[in-house]
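To illustrate the input format used throughout this study, we show a single complete record. The first block contains the structure-token representation of the backbone; no residue identities are included at this stage. The design step must infer an amino acid for every position from geometry alone.
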């Protein structure tokens, strides 16, 4: 199994454990309802920019570390087109839980990709010094099987 695939599976498993039903962990600074709304707006904005193929707008929602990694909107968009088709061209998206995971804020979004296959997209969000939210990364994982 390729190393990047194994790491992705491991991270997906860790995310699934965090989002499993159970008690919510206390946070040092709880998120306000305004934070949740702002986070959803950032994700919606980036998805809308992807739909328009507006690389500059989509890139603007990425955190400084992501922008430094890809350096240009064109490189960023190429990576998204190749590896993140469900969020690049979603048929639908539904926001689920917003949680803290080891000091990081993670928004879970259920997305149906262009092929009709549902995935969970875990958006790692980063608060900027000015209070704005940016996307620090996304992990795609198959939805957890439903239990009876």
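Output of the design step:
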């Amino acid at each position: 199994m390729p190393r990047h695939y194994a790491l992705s599976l491991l991270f997906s498993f860790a995310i699934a454990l965090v989002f499993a039903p159970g008690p919510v962990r206390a946070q040092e600074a709880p998120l306000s309802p305004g934070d949740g709304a702002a986070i959803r707006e950032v994700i919606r904005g980036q998805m809308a920019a992807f739909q328009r193929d507006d690389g500059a707008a989509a890139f603007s929602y990425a955190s400084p570390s992501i922008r430094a990694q890809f350096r240009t909107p064109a490189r960023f968009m190429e990576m998204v087109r190749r590896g993140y088709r469900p969020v690049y061209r979603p048929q639908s998206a539904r926001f689920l839980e917003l949680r803290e995971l080891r000091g990081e804020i993670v928004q879970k979004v259920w997305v149906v990709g262009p092929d009709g296959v549902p995935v969970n997209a875990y958006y790692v969000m980063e608060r900027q010094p000015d209070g704005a939210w940016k996307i620090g990364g996304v992990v795609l994982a198959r939805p957890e099987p439903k239990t009876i």
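Structural context for interpreting the output: The chain is about 45% helix and 25% strand. Residues 13 and 74 are 31 Å apart (CA to CA).
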